[in-house]
Amino acid sequence: MKKLLPTSTAGSLPKPSWIAEPEKLWSPWKLEGEALQQAKRDALLLSLIEQEAAGIDIVSDGEQTRQHFVTTFIEHLTGVDFEKRETVRIRDRYDASVPTVFDAVSRERPVFVEDAKFLRKHTKKPIKWALPGPMTMIDTLYDDYYKSREKLAWEFAKILNQEAKELEAAGVDIIQFDEPAFNVFFDEVNDWGIATLERAIEGLKCETAVHICYGYGIKANTDWKKTLGSEWRQYEESFPKLQQSKIDIISLECQNSHVPMDLIELIRGKKVMVGAIDVATNQIETAEEVAETLRRALQFVDADKLYPSTNCGMTPLSRTVANGKLRALSAGAEIVRQELTQ
Ligand SMILES: [Zn+2]
What we know:
This protein is α/β, with parallel strands linked by helices. The chain has helices at residues 33-53, 71-75, 113-122, 134-138, 149-169, 186-200, 219-226, 235-243, 287-297, 319-341; strands spanning 78-90, 94-106, 128-132, 142-143, 174-178, 207-211, 249-253, 271-275, 306-309. The strands form two sheets. The protein has a six-stranded parallel sheet with strand order 3-5-6-7-8-9. The protein has a three-stranded mixed sheet with strand order 1-2-4. Bound molecules: zinc ion. Residues 10-11, 180, 211, 213, 312-313 line the site of zinc ion.
């Protein structure tokens, strides 16, 4: 029988201090050339060992080989000029200097496939691999070529599909698309956001997930959250159509957030990665706190479809805190697993 409540993380894990400055988002690499390539592999292996030691059931690369969850993927594509930068509003929330699309975008070589093969070789556990979603990719660029968010999203969806198929062939069990933009651009989500996501998973036999969150615990995000009121109902906009979509798993944040838990009812039938770990605080949850969040979620999701997880990535946290949180996640899931099988 399949293990109930398999645990995983929503995304990134902290990097060791010898490869990038710790507790900092998008921290630049400390090494270069061959030394950096070797160090990335070492960091990936270490992240795997720490996840396994903490009892995480579905493991990942901890995003150890990427500086940024979107731009590292885009850096490998043609048609984007990283020298030519423009300032744009990201997620309608904060300004950032981003690269420019100046020509047709294409993927001339695999991006993460070698990393995935490396991870596969070192673990027997199921692997989940995160890729940026099409809408979040276009929201992190200045488009001087297609002049249409939708057109560029369809191009990225095709490219993501090529990468996803090779990741699947490399032995990845679940491919996750990160779409924080789904919590912001509701009309676009329903017009073409979910459709482009389905294009990205076309023909895949492995499981697929979409991660929709309120972001890392950075100031621009915590300031934004303060404007959202006492009930965060953003998921209400995308969930009905996602419930009808071909995506298998939906990843959302719950711990310490103002998301009304009953919104999960809107995706009944889907597997749900419930964020039971807050990534915006250094306070490590107790196992009982995690268990309580999972018990509440169980009112709206069947036990065999509940995947305990983190709210988002943990890159900006210290390794000690992140490891503590991984252990709390495992311990909390185990409490509820025992209750379910009694
Ligand atoms: Zn996230």
